[in-house]
């Protein structure tokens, strides 16, 4: 189990070190901030965009340079040549009113299914506010990626997960042309180019480091892609189908922190200004995120916050693991230091990653839950790949991400001013919640949830309607037998053996059957803390089996409930004939006898003398299949009987 340790001196003194002015490596900083400004050339905007808004791809594609040695794109030369053209496009857009822009380009944005968002990007460009332009570029690239994935599915089957692979696909080249795809790769998707999408979404670029002209250029390129796509759809007589957005369906499970009020927001802004978790060039991102939350723009808030969480954690990661050079963007020949690596147990050189030890288990489990676990919300993935309807982004998730961020601002600073802020009534509950967080989306947590839901279903069995005693006695051979007593006895014996393996606060009392079937005992068991971080593969494989068993048990229980209620209703209404009523009662008896046989065999296999655990697993699996098959057969017979009656 991970335990949060005392904050090392290196972390305490982060704010005392030389201030970080950029997270871009020298080569990447040169590529993004300077290369596209080196040639002072001018391009007539009419050679790029016609008066009615048609994009001239030939003019643009001619400026993409290729290496003579292998004919691959020369990204440095291409950025240098495209820089002046981007400037001309940017000046052109600045000359347009919103009405003019909408008339010329809104039609060509429809293929993205995000026309309103792209109009907002134009409005941000008009404001020339750096943080707003950076935010718009993040939203534009995610929207564009999603739309290009839809186009990919016109030709291919499995859409690539990474934008880099998507832009390099033959499928998109077949629709738009290879030269067009090469233009896009200069701006996004290739680590050798400007790579605007990645340096923003991973928190490397500050607002001041992103030239607005590149956002303008991507906006025009998006319209140009719409024009090319229209021609392709007409030629192939096909229709572009948009994949549905992903909806967050587990909001109650995500409710961890109390609601953040206006007072907490004001305090958070003060925290961000003095916390060593925040790099000074990135402060405007934090302020903008808080503003977005106040204005109920919850998607914007999270889009701004997630890269800054990654930046702050990267600062901790590189400090505590003594690799300060990795705070910067990696060169194109190696990988960036991102969430994926920072949350792992070991570094690439097999050394133990010290970040989990510093953050502690609760914080690590929160990050894994919200970012990585497959059954969790995976907020960053879904947002950055354009899979979420931004207008419907839930406040609940924004509240959780923001509240967790506040706790990190507090924890990793030793400024005297923070002491009072940490104890403030608006902040202290957030810190308390973060310190006791437990995973909700790890397979272990999901198994616990499944077991409780299954037991809730089984616990409803005693409430099922029962055939009157006098009617049972009317049928010869179906008198109440004593066979249920051995079944209960066997179960009692099994449970007695399990008592030794239960936590100290969990007891199986004299009334074993009722106690086991009560949710109280299982709630106690499922509340027992189990470390979920870095589970061995063998444990994860066993969890898969357990979850399948739990699913089958729940299905059997639901089928028993549905069948029993339906049969009872027909019994009471005298719909069942005498033979069918007879079969109904025999069905219940057979069900109990099958459980009796199963428990008898299980007692034998699990005894200290036999110790046949593999056989016990197989026996349990067969029993579940048998019960399910019987239940399905019973429903089929009932349906046939109904049909006969109606005929």
| Total beta strands | 0
Element-by-element helix/strand order: HHHHHHHHHHHHHHHHHHHHHHHHHHHHHH
Largest sheet: none
Terminal CA distance: 66 Å
Structural class, by secondary structure, is mainly alpha
> Mean pLDDT, rounded to whole units?
85
- Pick out the low-confidence regions: none
Q: Helix amount, in percent?
A: 55-70%
Percent of residues in beta strands? under 5%
Based on Cα principal axes, name the global outline.
globular
Gyration radius over CA:
32 Å
Q: Output the number of helix runs.
A: 30
Can you tell me about this structure?
With 647 residues, the chain is mainly alpha-helical. It has 30 helices and no strands. The termini are far apart. The model has no long low-confidence stretch (mean pLDDT 85). InterPro entries: DUF4209 (IPR025209), ERMARD (IPR039635). This is ER membrane associated RNA degradation.
